[in-house]
Structures are given as C-alpha cells and as structure tokens.
Write a structure and sequence with these properties.
Elements (H helix, E strand, L loop, with lengths): L4 E4 L6 E3 L3 H11 L6 H14 L3 E2 L2 E2 L3 H15 L4 H16 L4 E3 L3 H10 L3 E6 L5 H7 L8 E4 H4 L6 H11 L6 E5 L2 H10 L3 E5 L12 E2 L1 H10 L4
Parallel strand pairs: 1-6, 1-8, 6-7, 8-9, 9-10
Antiparallel strand pairs: 2-5, 3-4
The chain binds magnesium ion.
C-alpha cells in the first residue's frame, strides 16, 4: 500500500546526544564534588535504569519527575549527597537535556522531513522521550516540518505498545496500512509498529542492527529513496 503518512522515532533515528549519557552524569558529579568516572557511571546508570519502575515520582518513564527519582538514586543513594545537592544535579541535568546544542541532527534529517511534508505526506515524530522533546525539535529546526509530535512521557504510554501508535494515527487522521513508522529499535519501533498494523523500516546509522524480519536501510539517504519508491 502506498505510504501517505510517515512517523519517525527521534533518538538514534533523526538526532543523537553529542555526549554519552554516562559522560554527562560524570560532568555533573564532578561539579558536585564527586569523583565518578564515565566508566564507573555507565554500569551504575544501566543498573538503575533496569530497576526503575515505569512510573516514579508521579511521572511516566523519561518524564522529569521520573528522572528526578533516577537522579535521587544516583546522587543521593549511591553517592550519599544531600537532597539539596540532588536538586542541584537535577537542575544541571534538565538544563543539559533541554539545550538543543547538546544534540546533533543526523545529516539529511531536516531535508528529509521537509521533503516528505512538501510532497503532501503527514509527517510526525513518535518517541519515547521526556516532555521536553517538542521544544528540542523546535530548537533543532525539525518541528516546523512536522504535523505532530507524540511523546511517551506526555501520553503515559510508550513504544512498543499499540496505544501510542493508535494515538498518533488518530491525531494524524491516518490509516495504519498506509502509514510508515521509521526507527532504530527492532522491538520498540519495528515490532511495535508492525503489531499496531503499520508499515515499518529500520534505520541503521552505525551498522549495528542484525539482519532480521524487518526491512532496514543504512542512513537517511537510503531511507529517503526507500520512502519515495513507495509514495503515491
Ligand atoms: Mg531510537
């Protein structure tokens, strides 16, 4: 079926953090007088992410309230810092993640969404992200080319659940069979979208995705060609 709407994942598909998460936390730790290296923070952050419930501090995963609880575990529980120091860490981290300059947009991303929209397709972002994503997309020059931005922390549901895709379809006024979802995560993006009845393609920027049941392109140039072949 010809594609009439395109949904795109954000992180690892259209944009990426410039610094690894553990390096960002190491910088904040240093500012608070704690010497914790990036190498030490990597397994710690991964362990805490694994133990975190889906909602915490009244917020859904990746919301500021939820990250407040992550930061309390890192800086309070693990490093023994005071509540005031944890609050300071939160301010530094939230400011970092709200700053567009701390992210990079993959080559061709802005041109791709602009072209799809100019061709009359409905174009949206569907992302597991904090409530700050929309502002970030404005700052990165992507938002003006998008019809909709659907974010897990706001919706209180997340990929790969069918609900978040259904909400995006409803908001886009789109049918699943003529909608393509693009992402870089096999389970959350490709399998989730397929189970919600959408078409899907994976984008592999770094040659990391194992061959599997879902179509996969290498980078946004290949993605553009793949989509245009399937447009009316
Ligand atoms: Mg992603």
């Amino acid at each position: 079926m010809a594609i009439k709407a395109v949904f795109l994942d954000a992180g690892g598909t259209l944009l990426a953090e410039k610094l690894p998460r553990a390096a960002i936390y190491a910088n904040v730790a240093r500012e608070l007088g704690v010497s914790a290296t990036e190498a030490a923070l990597r397994p710690l952050l991964s362990r805490i992410a694994g133990e975190m419930p889906r909602t915490a501090g009244g917020g859904f995963r990746y919301s500021e309230a939820w990250f407040g609880e992550v930061n309390a575990r890192v800086f309070g529980r693990e490093f023994g810092l005071s509540d005031a120091a944890v609050a300071h860490a939160c301010r530094l981290l939230f400011a970092h993640f709200a700053e567009p300059a701390n992210f990079r947009v993959y080559d061709g991303a802005i041109e791709l969404v602009a072209e799809l929209k100019a061709r009359g397709l409905v174009v949206g972002v569907v992302s597991n992200w904090s409530e700050r994503l929309e502002g970030l997309l404005v700052g990165l020059g992507l938002r003006q080319h998008l019809d909709l931005v659907v974010v897990s922390a706001v919706e209180r549901c997340e990929k790969p659940e069918r609900t978040i895709f259904a909400r995006a379809l409803a908001r886009a006024g789109a049918e699943p069979t003529t909608t393509l979802h693009v992402g870089n995560d096999v389970e959350k993006d490709a399998r989730g979208a397929t189970e919600a009845g959408l078409q899907t393609v994976l984008v592999d920027h770094h040659g990391e995705i194992e061959p599997g049941p879902f179509p996969c392109v290498r980078g946004l140039g290949e993605l553009r060609a793949w989509i245009l072949e399937r447009c009316p």
